[in-house]
TrEMBL record:
Keywords: Membrane, Transmembrane, Transmembrane helix. This is Uncharacterized protein. It comes from Oryza sativa subsp. japonica. The chain crosses the membrane at residues 6-25, 69-92, 112-130, 178-203, 209-230, 242-267, 279-298.
Length: 314
């Protein structure tokens, strides 16, 4: 019976990975029926514009009133510092192995903190470029005509530098978008599991609700909602495949860790030997769809509200 349970759990995870990879490949190969660009083409176009001044969604805000997103820069920096502080608090309360072994929430928060640091750098770069652009426009009437040739040469040099650094920025920007989209589902999933399952039903000698645990399972969602309200990033449906692959990777790591000798499961229902383990795995797989749909709806609802309110949006 235990062998069958292990086999079914493995089959569910393997099936989720295979389905996600198939969906990713299909979205790139299959042209849309309405003649519009496929989802990945939109992302490619957005990434290609990262190096152009004022065109990147990486640092711009959907609120035109805060252009070029000084408020977004401040919120990202504050969130990155706060999440890093909570992670340090977590590590000091327990130990560093918690980042690998304890819960998906800890690894999700680590990913969120690192992504916010990248986003903060993008925002700082965007605000710097915006300031330089306005400074150039302000000083332009005072420039002597004899310097026009020099100005053109400098623009060519800057353009060449942008071309050289553009590929790296494009890849980093795409990575930031993917992580943001994965976090949308992962944060909802970990909070639902924690507050709806772990806290009410799975207290043990290894787990008790305290301040650091409460912060870990609340700050992520709060800062992500603030980011969603202010940023100008897309949240396409097909990126749920990355969210599924992220969780499957975590589950596989848990399997490996326990094969190496650790006994306690932070999420007891992930133990393939637990009663009804295959059913738990199947329900968690369905919960991925629900959690990503919830955050996708939040993003769509936020966009609709910003378009309908009196404050102009981008």
């Amino acid at each position: 019976m235990a062998t069958l349970s292990y086999a079914l759990c493995f089959a569910i995870v393997a099936g989720a990975i295979a389905a996600s990879l198939w969906a990713m490949l299909s979205s790139r190969k299959r042209p849309p029926s309405d003649g519009s660009s496929p989802p990945h083409a939109v992302d490619d176009a957005a990434a290609a514009s990262i190096g152009s001044a004022g065109a990147s969604a990486m640092w711009s805000s959907r609120w035109s009133g805060v252009r070029p997103a000084w408020l977004l820069l401040a919120s990202r920096a504050a969130a990155a510092v706060a999440l890093a502080g909570v992670l340090l608090w977590d590590a000091l309360t327990y130990d560093l192995t918690i980042m690998v072994y304890y819960t998906e929430a800890s690894t999700t928060q680590s990913m969120h903190a690192w992504n916010l640091q990248i986003a903060t750098l993008f925002s700082a770069y965007g605000c710097f470029m915006y300031s330089m652009h306005h400074r150039h426009v302000t000083m332009l009437p005072e420039i002597d005509e004899s310097l026009v040739g020099l100005s053109g040469s400098l623009m060519e040099i800057n353009h060449g530098a942008d071309q050289k650094g553009g590929a790296g920025l494009n890849q980093l920007g795409r990575f930031m978008q993917i992580v943001y989209q994965v976090l949308g589902g992962a944060v909802v999933l970990t909070d639902v599991v924690f507050w709806a399952l772990i806290v009410p039903f799975m207290y043990s000698s290894h787990f008790s609700l305290n301040a650091v645990m409460g912060c870990i399972h609340s700050f992520n969602l709060v800062f992500l909602l603030i980011e969603t309200t202010l940023n100008n990033l897309e949240f396409p449906w097909f990126r749920m495949t990355y969210f599924v692959l992220w969780t499957c990777s975590y589950v596989i790591i848990q399997w490996v860790v326990h094969v190496c000798g650790l006994k306690w499961w932070p999420y007891p229902f992930l133990n393939p030997a637990a009663p009804w383990a295959p059913l738990w795995y199947f329900c968690i797989a369905l919960l991925h769809l629900a959690c990503y749909t919830v955050y996708w709806a939040i993003v769509r609802g936020t966009n609709w509200w910003l378009r309908s309110c009196t404050i102009p949006t981008r």
